[in-house]
Specification:
Elements lengths: L1 E12 L2 E13 L4 E6 L5 H8 L7 E6 L2 E2 L5 H8 L2 E5 L10 H11 L4 H14 L15 H13 L5 E5 L7 H18 L2 E6 L2 H7 L2 E6 L2 E7 H6 L4 H7 L14 E8 L2 H4 L3 H9 L4 E10 L2 E11 L3 H9 L4 E6 L5
Parallel strand pairs: 3-8, 3-9, 6-7, 7-8
Antiparallel strand pairs: 1-2, 1-4, 4-5, 9-10, 11-13, 11-14, 12-13
Bound molecules: adenosine-5'-triphosphate.
């Protein structure tokens, strides 16, 4: 388990003071794939670097598998870091070394004998699907293949936690999907806890079970991906889920109240809700935004409606009669 307790990080330099993380508390369960998503500058990299103490928090505690990292000696920390490895956007391979040597490198540092290290490295090359690239140099590989080698290297010390810092941001969509599949496969086969840092919602939707949304150094929302993305509450989450925003022109906030509907089954998504509201109740709702998405193998729909003030109570009663539908009133500035 990874626990961040009231973690803050402030950078102070000639340019001034930046509060990159503010009182962040998170718990990541063993074996989970946990996404941390946010806009550029939100503090994602700083947060992930605090998990392995590449960055020391200014305040707060970081506890990984029961060990409090921020209280460790340098030698203890080096040992702990073998269990918390990381992959990066730019792969960070040693260009003068072959792929096999790259994968052997962390084992060399840990004092593993050469033969044993090479045997393990070959197993890992198999696992990442590149058994024939042992003697190739990184420059001879595609970006996706280089990331596979970086993943193999990250697994060389039998880690319990894999941190992925924008690991697919430099890859095209197809390669991204293949690398995400590999990460998911590793999570399932080896039971490794994975923390995925990304600015792309598609990455979180594809593989994560839980997500935290980071905005200006703060966790503004966290929980199951399906719960957070189907009913985003914070401004930051709504920006991610509805990047285009709502069209203000379709709706006059002074004349109506807003209802967010969340559908959680294929049968409910198939009901022509707005048409029935008009036909059966003569209530003409504004559809401000609507989307369906597949999250964790289930179909979820979400619709934001503007309902004329005088008809709101009747519309509310109508929605309450429909099974598998969650309705909530939201404030008029919600998009
Ligand atoms: N070493 C540093 N010195 C000073 N400020 C820093 C340092 N590292 C990060 N920051 C600042 O902390 C804030 C958070 O940066 P961070 O890189 O963690 O964000 P991010 O969400 O990962 O952004 P991006 O997606 O653009 O990489 C930014 O304002 C950044 O300028």
């Amino acid at each position: 388990m990874i626990e961040l307790q009231h973690v803050s990080k402030t950078f102070e330099n000639a340019g001034g003071r930046v509060d990159a993380l503010r009182d962040v508390s998170l718990t990541i369960a063993d074996g989970d794939i946990y996404g941390i998503i946010g806009m550029s500058g939100a503090g994602k990299s700083t947060l992930v670097r605090c998990i392995n103490m590449l960055e020391r928090p200014t305040e707060g505690r970081v506890i990984v598998n029961g060990q409090q990292l921020d209280a460790m000696t340098p030698a203890q920390l080096r040992a702990a870091r073998r269990e918390i490895t990381m992959i990066f956007q730019r792969f960070n391979l040693l260009m003068q070394r072959t792929c096999l040597q790259n994968i052997c490198f962390p084992m060399e540092l840990a004092g593993v004998g050469r033969k044993e290290a090479q045997a393990k490295a070959r197993q890992l090359l198999e696992l990442v699907g590149l058994p024939d690239k042992a003697q190739a140099y990184p420059a001879q590989l595609s970006g996706g293949q280089q990331q596979r080698i970086a993943i193999a290297r990250a697994l060389a010390t039998n880690p319990k936690v894999l941190l992925c810092d924008e690991a697919t941001s430099a890859l095209d969509p197809k390669t991204t999907r293949q690398i995400l599949e590999l990460i998911q496969d590793i999570n399932r086969k080896l039971g490794i806890t994975v923390v995925v840092i990304t600015h792309q919602m598609s990455v979180v939707k594809e593989i994560c079970t839980h997500v935290a949304i980071l905005d200006d150094g703060e966790v503004v929302e966290n929980g199951l991906v399906s719960a957070v993305f189907s009913a985003p509450k914070s401004q930051a989450a709504r920006h991610l889920v509805f990047p285009g925003g709502a069209d203000a022109a379709v709706s006059d906030p002074s004349q109506e109240r807003r209802i967010r509907l969340i559908f959680r089954s294929a049968q409910t998504t198939a009901i022509p809700m707005v048409a029935r509201l008009a036909a059966e109740e003569s209530i003409y709702a504004n559809v401000i935004s609507a989307s369906t998405q597949k999250l964790s193998e289930e179909v979820y729909g979400s619709m934001l409606l503007g309902i004329p003030n005088s008809q709101f109570d009747r519309a509310w009663q109508f929605f309450r009669t429909i099974p598998n539908l969650q309705a909530e009133e939201v404030s008029v500035d919600v998009q």
